[in-house]
């Protein structure tokens, strides 16, 4: 077993055809939920380096997918699997002899999950790309950044993981539920461009009723409003302010020691620069830790901006045990939490491959 055998997906067998980014992340999430995940990768990739932490909770087998004999061994595994995940460009697994038709012929109950940036069809389906490219065509990248400045990539959270692996996992789980009724597998076309559009539904909705402009930095959630922004403190660090609701905004003003009398209305577009200047001056008067203490225990929706290193010591994250350490690498604990079928701590990534013939042998 590649996992502790605990969790709501205990007993579900998953084959992961090795890739990068969202595919391995989806496999990791399924393993965290208790699935028995077998990663099929090229020989001589172990022990791995930058990608190694993403291999937690797995069994790893080695196969040359250009070798028909090794492909035949993978198809033997397919007969015993519930799910197969792959992240190649459209048509690649078909040419290997591991495409959906080949796999479902061997196992009609198989859920075949395909993870790509552009999807299995469309004018750009066979093009290369990365997170920044997939979200650039959806309007999302254009929306992130300050007024008059260029768009800022949100790391690779929106395309690869938010719009990619999370939607692949959602598709797998939905297909497993449906299979319980139909007894049949199916193919999931998970495209990061689709997922990014789904993640931005709230903004599309605001745009549809005239409450969102294509101009960056002029909207409710893109630093267009002074009460939803970050501010530098006296020690060169930052506070995050999200005091949207009037009752929370009132507490923000109180914490900053600002008399609301005579101020522009909270949502007045013409008053935002005045408010921003006032907030900027106030936050610069104290250190981040001093402001953190002032707003602690309030509903001002004002919190310190922490580095990854600082996050490891955050009281709330520590109380929830949101971070764990595996092979000296700090990383997230399995999420979400379950009241009855909580999984165990993920097993470390393997350092040696398991013979493919030994996997699911019984």
UniProtKB/TrEMBL annotation:
Residues 336-362 are annotated as: Disordered. InterPro entries: CoA-transferase_III, CoA-Trfase_fam_III, CoA-Trfase_III_dom3_sf, CoA-Trfase_III_dom_1_sf. The keyword Isomerase applies. Pfam families: CoA_transf_3 (PF02515). Keywords: Isomerase. It comes from the Bacteria. GO terms for molecular function: isomerase activity. Coiled coil: none annotated. Belongs to the CoA-transferase III family. This is Alpha-methylacyl-CoA racemase. It comes from Nocardia ignorata.
